[in-house]
Write a structure and sequence with these properties.
The chain is mainly α. Helix content is about 70%, strand content about 0%.
């Protein structure tokens, strides 16, 4: 197969509703780098994202929430992780197979 014959197929696959470009591994890494550069010092109160990360990841900060609040937060974070996984890796086996074939085709 030549790439010219596959271009219409690629365009259709990109238009597929399961294809969501607003979430990607690259975007995740970029946002994570921004979070790591948050200004944190003894004189600055933690920002909301930093405090959220601490409450989720450290038992000492989890104590700032009661048991019900901790459970709600854990549920929301798990839901976000599941949705992120679906958005960045949609369950489209046929599409992945075709994309793999297209990438392996010699130019």
């Amino acid at each position: 197969m030549k790439n010219e014959t596959l271009l219409p197929l690629v365009a259709k696959l990109k238009a597929c509703p399961s294809h969501d470009e607003s979430f990607s591994r690259e975007m995740f890494l970029e946002c994570w780098d921004e979070l790591r550069r948050e200004d944190v010092s003894a004189y600055v109160n933690p920002t909301v994202p930093v405090m959220a990360a601490l409450v989720v990841s450290d038992d000492r900060f989890k104590q700032l929430l009661d048991e019900t609040e901790q459970s709600q937060l854990d549920s929301l974070v798990n839901l976000a992780v599941e949705r992120y996984a679906r958005k960045t890796n949609p369950p489209n086996k046929l599409g992945k197979l075709i994309a793999g074939i297209i990438k392996k085709e010699p130019q």
